[in-house]
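Follow-up to my post from last week.
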Amino acid sequence: MLEQNFIGMLRGESAPWSRRRTTSYLIRRTVLYVFAIGGACIYALPLFLMIGTSLKAPMELYVRPYQWFPATPQWQNYVQAWTAFPFTRYLFNTLYVTIMSLTGAVISCSFAAYAFSRIRFPARKIFFALVLAAMMLPRDALFIPTYIIWWRLGAVGTYIPLWAPGWLGRGLSRIFLLRQFFRTIPVELEDSAKMDGCSAFQRFWSIIVPLSKPAIGVVMIFEFISNWNSFVSPLIYLKDPQMYTLNVGLNMFRDAFMEQFASMPNMHQFMAIATIIIMPVIIIFIFLQRYFVEGIQLSGINR
Amino acid sequence: MKNPRVKVSRLRLTGKTAFTEKLYTFFLGRDRLNRTDALWGYAFSAFWLGGFLLLTVGPFVVSLVMSFYRWPGYGPARFIGIHNYEWIFTKDRLFRQALSVTARFVFTAVPVRILVAFVVAWILSHKLAGVTVLRSMYYLPSVVTGVAVAFMWMYIFEAQNGPMNMLIRALGAKQSVGWLASPRWILPSFIIMETWTLGSSMIIILAGLKGVDRTLYESAHIDGAKGYHRLFHITLPMISPSLFYVFVIGFISAFQMLTMPLVIFGTGYQDVGGPMNRGLFYSLYLYNRAFQAGRMGYACALAWILFVIIVSITAVNFYFIGRKVYYEG
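User reply:
Got it. Predicted complex:
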């Protein structure tokens, strides 16, 4: 920095970083701020509209000019919509699936990541190459053969196809993320434990896990959100309406009450349910956003 | 007197022992002291390995095999040879429609999203006050997905009184636009939706931009480089790994997009994929064939074709664009 400044001074020109107060600098900053803030508002707008609409009275849906936020928020929309369908039951179903899957994902992904980062065994390179290759494969397109497999195993109609993939380490980006994190932990810690005769599992459990709480937290957050948002699997695998998750329930709610495609009546109630469903995710995001960014930067993927 | 020669205790392996030893070496490595550890390696990988076989390799094999059968989802399957493929490539007009809809979407939405993500990341790479809050506001839409968000878009794009129509009327448009209900506007609507979720691409590009060595800009400035020179000769080459990554991943996931079209067009419309099937995304067609038309074998053939397409495009990306990526060091 200093010598660059010096060279600039020698050449008789002001370096860009010393041009703090010039007019062009101020104009550029202002334009940047306008675009940054304007864009951010546009990005937040759809969610704001959704929440605003969820509080409108039915007649206010048609008011022109557009009403951003109702004069008197109709909080009873939430109660009405929530009780019109067994959403409470769906909520517990969703929580059950999410927690089962999340527990499994933490265990399976951290195990695999530990094996790939710290244990020397001949198949390690091949296994990890398979992980990386599979990350590039279009696995979501295979939901039909996956369905056939679960059907063969007699698991269609149960919750097993929804949480078992978590236990089976399907979240490859999570494995990758944890592996990257485990590699930052000094090996010496484990070497000394190895001298004392700790087995690989003991080393993992008493050294790696306590030191990796932030990374495991990131995995839990991502896993929670992906399960909370998942729609296609519960739609395919759940046959009994009593077992539906929130997303499938909301879809059924639409089929039951929305006469035509995307028509306006009842829109306030749909928005109310939709708001309730995304609220936990938004709250988690607001409080734990630092982990999201770190997680993406570590693994490159947010799914 | 026997010669008290000390026997060299060299382990001589014969027969069964030699075989086991070879097996051990193959699976657990040469280092005998670490064999317990190596065994643990397999134990730790077991969950993932089971999943890999059951949920990655399994579906590939199953879909390949099933694509030669006719199976309605119950009862016995009937072997019909390459009939499914033959039908797909010669008679199935919906297949062509699905392919063209998906291709048009992928090749517009992904570049648009990455371009916008780059602009946003570039703006946010400056030292602005409250940049963390701004970054969160851009990233938030990528966290919320699923049915709720599909509903939100259905409301926003509502054909008569939706906010989007109110907006374009306020801007001076004479008529309201049908958006998701009109064949012409489905693709633009989906591009808008896709661009809304640019969060993770933006974060990855932003990390790339932050990683560019500042001194490069300073020396370029001293050498008299203009703004666009800096963009094309420093910024873009330096962040090309990030760009390439979001490009490849973006293609792969956009080809498989299912939740949005399924919620929006899945029910309540007489065509499978929305008005005039203009929203017939490939995965939606897969879903329709398998679970609504009851043609599992046919859907497996379609899935296999999609798989081949995506893998080829990924390979082409790596071959033609990947070689232009500049990796530092």
